[in-house]
Amino acid sequence: MKPAHLFVLVALFIVGSTTLQSCFTDHIQPTDVRAQLQQVSDSLYQHFNAKWKIEKNKGGFFLQVNSPAGSNLVSSNIEPGVQRDSHYRIASLSKIFTAAAIMLLQQEGKLVITDFIPAYLPATPAYDIPYKDKITIKQLLQHRAGVFDVTNQDIPTTVNQPYAGKRYGEYIRDDLKQDTHTFTFDELVGVVAQNKLSNFSPGTTFGYSNTGYNLLGKIIEKASGMSYSDFIRTRFLEPLRLTNTYNVWQGTDTRMKDPFVGSYLYVPGTSPTSTFEDNMSIHVTEGDMVSSPADITKWIELLLTGKAGITPQTVSMMEEMQVADVSHGVYGLGLTFNDGLGYGHDGAHLSYISTLRYNPATKTTVLMVATLFKTGNTPEASYTDFLELAYGVRNTALRAAQIATK
C-alpha cells in the first residue's frame, strides 16, 4: 500500500474528540502574547521532532490567533515563516462553506432543509441511492443520512465491480493510471447508487460521510442554477474579499497558487516526501478548498457573527449540536463545538492537519495547523501517530485560546 493511501486510513478521524489530555508542558512563560504563542507552537514542534526527527524546514506547525486585543501568526520549522496570505489545503474546513451555502439558499427560499433530497436532485440512475426518499438535506448536513462514503470506505468485496475491495479513487488513479482524472458528483454518487451501498437507515445514528456532502453540492447546483464552485465564489469569496481562498475542481489543478505552505510525509526508512501537490477533484464540497491563515479565520468570524450573508438566526441553527461519535464528539450543520474553543471544524488531508474555531463568548479565533505526518510500520501504528498529532494540534489550539483571553 502506498504511503499516501495509508494516510486515508487515519484521515477519517478528522480530529473530533471533545476532551483533551495535555501531553506538552509549557515552561517559564514570557509576558508578551505573541512570544507565548510562539512558545506553545515551538513546544508542539519540539515534541514531535524528538519522536520523529523532523528535518529542517520539512514539515512544521503554524498558529493564527485573532482576539479583541489583536492578531498574531507564528510558525515553527517553516522557513520563511508563514504569512497571512500563504496558501494551504484546508481539507474538511471546506464543509463549512458547503453548509453555509445550503443555509443561504434556505434563507432565500430556494430550498428547505427538512425536505427529502429527491426534490433537489436529478431523476437519473446516478442519484438513485438507497433510502433516498427518507433522507433530508438536514441529515446530510449532520452526517446522519447513512450515505456510504466513497472517499473513506473500501467498496465491499461483494459487489461485481473491478474496484471491489478498494477505494474507488485509488482504483481510478492507480489501477487505471488516471492520476489527473476529474471526479464529478454524478460519478461519485453514481458508485453508491449503482452498487446500492448504504451504511445505515437515515436518522438512526451519526456516520461521517464525504459523499453526503457531494450530494449537498449537487443540491446547491440544482437550487442555485450555477456550479458549486461558482456559487461559493460569487456568494461568499468575492463579496467578503477572501482573495486567497478558492475551490479546486479540476483533476489537473494539482499545485496551489504561490505563496503556499509545503507539507511532508515521513515514511520509516525513506527521506521526507512532499505532499502539497495533489488531485483534489474527488473532494469538491468536502475537502477541496485552498485558503490562507488570514482568509480562513476572517471567514469563520464573519460567518458566525452574522456578517457573511447568513443571518444570526440561521447561524444559531447551524450551531445546534447533536451527539455524534467518539471521534467527533458533537456535530451540528457543518460545524462542531469544543468547550474553551468554540465553533468550527477540523480537517485532515495529506499532510495538512487543521483545527479552526471561533468562540463567540470571547470573540477569539484560533487556527492551528500541522504540515507533516509520519506513517508507522502498520496501519495501527499510523493511526496511533495520527491521533497523537491530531490531539496535539487541538490541545495547542486550546492553549493558544487561553493565552489570548487571559
From TrEMBL:
Which Gene3D superfamilies does the entry mention?
A: DD-peptidase/beta-lactamase superfamily
Show which residues constitute the signal peptide: 1-22
Keywords in alphabetical order: Signal
Q: Output the InterPro entries linked to this UniProt entry.
A: AmpC-like, Beta-lactam-related, Beta-lactam/transpept-like
Please indicate if the UniProt record lists Signal as a keyword: yes
Q: Where is the Beta-lactamase-related domain?
A: 81-379
The protein's name is Beta-lactamase-related domain-containing protein
What is the species of this protein? Spirosoma montaniterrae
